[in-house]
């Protein structure tokens, strides 16, 4: 005895809102990609003119960020594709997968920066402070604009991964500006490497947060803000007809989309007599726990699988 989720006008409205959010996020990502690529070219040109290894390296870094943002945009586009016979849940988790890849990319880029900074601390090289200061001011403006574009959608894990790339660059330019001013006043070239290590530590903290959350979703963990035991107890206490529950699973389909499946033990009566109770239970799960995709199977025996999978 089983049934699927109740179809109501509410999900369609939510779907419309998600579609609007996805369109806005897509435009923001494309503009951020254009800003990063354009500025990477400018950095490379001025870095070669000024013979500045720092600017050339950061040009490569910005180009890499544009690639990461491109992955985020691709994940956003793929997540909007409809389910099919092969991928019945659709492509919702592609956005989570791209966030996971972005986090790994951040780890790699930051490790490269740390290695370069340590190597340069051993052998500091002269830096043209004027070029650094001018490019840092322009870089702050460009990356600040990109951060503001993406900030309003920071609830999205995919966008948050991209945002960490932008914040890394923004903080990097703060370090470059500070370093340029200090170098101009004191000639201490090593200050640039010290600030790079501080920024790298901050970025690694953010990348780890995104990596951990994306991994949790990809392996179908219970959402971190949900208490599994509380959901189970609420279902059991919801109606006197529910005398048992097993095979309860709660997971994330995509960003802000939660699913639940369970077997409910009920008295041996016609299926139609439980329909009102199931409708109310699904509405309760949606309102109280924000679980919108619900699949419940009704059983009149304690466990039809002879106790092999019962969790009671």
Task: Give a quick summary of the entry.
Helix content is 66%, strand content 9%. It is elongated. Mean pLDDT is 76; it is low at 1-17 and 307-312.
Describe this structure in words.
The chain has 312 residues and is an alpha+beta fold. It has two domains: 7-218, Alpha-lytic protease prodomain-like; 228-299, 2-Layer Sandwich (Alpha-Beta Plaits), CATH 3.30.70.1350. The chain has eight helices and four strands. It has a four-stranded mixed sheet. α1 packs antiparallel against α2 and α2 packs antiparallel against α5. Residues 1-17 and 307-312 have low confidence and may be disordered.
What is the CATH C-level name of the largest domain? Mainly Alpha
Order of strands in the sheet with most strands: 1-4-3-2
Mean pLDDT rating: 76
Give the biggest beta sheet: 4 strands, mixed
Describe the global form.
Answer: elongated
- Terminal residue distance: 20 Å
User: How many structural domains?
Assistant: 2
Pfam families: Cation_efflux (PF01545), ZT_dimer (PF16916)
Membrane topology: Multi-pass membrane protein
Protein name: Cation transporter
Keywords: Ion transport, Membrane, Transmembrane, Transmembrane helix, Transport
